[in-house]
Amino acid sequence: MAHDGAIDGIHDRLRIALKDAMRARNRTRMSTLRAALSVLDNATAVGVDVMPAAGAIEASATGLGAAEAGRRVLSEPEQQELILREADELAASAVMFTDAEQAAAQRAEADALRGLVEQVD
Question: What is the model's pTM?
């Protein structure tokens, strides 16, 4: 997150852009930004193979959060790569729209994501 008023990377930029889109009631932008944030959240999820196997009830962890696994930490370049891949997928899917306006909007959303990544560099 942001510290001392500074913006710390792509995740923070996406969150700020989402708030701006919400204020502007731009549903398309909100959807795009939520999807991009989900890509990052999904990438940090711990795989099932990392979770401890179930065992006897008396041997289970107790207490609040005792059985929770920590999330993976992605470097800034890894986060940027994921968002750029998402932008590429948006741009590629734009050709599937028969309506030129919808296709242009899809490409604009892809460009917006790329712009947020470039601001971090």
Answer: 0.73
